[in-house]
Amino acid sequence: MVDFRSLIDPARLFGNAPTRPAQPVQQPAQQPAQNDSRGTQVPQTIQNQLNPVDQNRVNQRNNAQPNVPMAQNGQPAVVAFPDRSATGSAAGTNRQQPRVAAPAQAQAPAAPGAPRNINTRATFFDGKAATGKEIDAVLKHYNSPHAGQGETLARICREENINPVMMVAIMQQESSFGNRSNRPSLKDENIANPWSVHFNEPAKGINKLRLKDGSLPSFEQSLRGAIRTMKNLAGDSETPLSTAGKRYSTTGAWTSEVTTHFKTQSNRIDRTR
Hints:
By secondary structure, this protein is mainly α. It has helices at about 10-15, 45-50, 50-65, 120-125, 130-140, 150-160, 165-175, 190, 220-235, 240-250, 255-270, and strands at about 35, 40.
């Protein structure tokens, strides 16, 4: 009879079995590393352990051009570049990229009392910006000798399609509404011709404001002369006041001062409405 106890190693039962020498692990041969599309090396040993889906993605990246953005399907993505110049010619190409115009947004009407931009054609040529009564109230407020001419001023501005409040602002700038109390240095010519229109250019000094026969112009003559001058100087400019102002006056601040007067009188008129 075989004694099975002799086949059992007591050292194994009590944990004293000698350790077996470790078997050397055979390392797989190193394969040349490949670069993915971002320049990161993907060792071949790692690629061999990928499942078929991941392996396919790695292969697609490895076959793509370096530094080319990838779409979700693994194909190189199309990159659109904006125009490089005003003519639309990008560097290296003469093909113009199409421009997509932004949708126009409707502008809300100005709230009562909101200042208008007099340096735009829409405001500059608004002949119905104020009534004769409203203009007359401004002239009376400044004790102008032309108070009572509001209806005449508003009517002519409607006929000529030019802003009557702007013409009041120019009158304030040129002659303080013709009021000597506001500007004691005013001459008779300044009062009769409150827009300082040069009817007699060859004359000298203040005589330029007189008519060619030497007489003083009427209020209507002065107004029509000022309107004609402003419209001719403005021309087709998109900034008519500043364009005309550069030649109407040699004073560099003329446009900004007239703009300030325009805002003041527009707000004054709005408060009475």
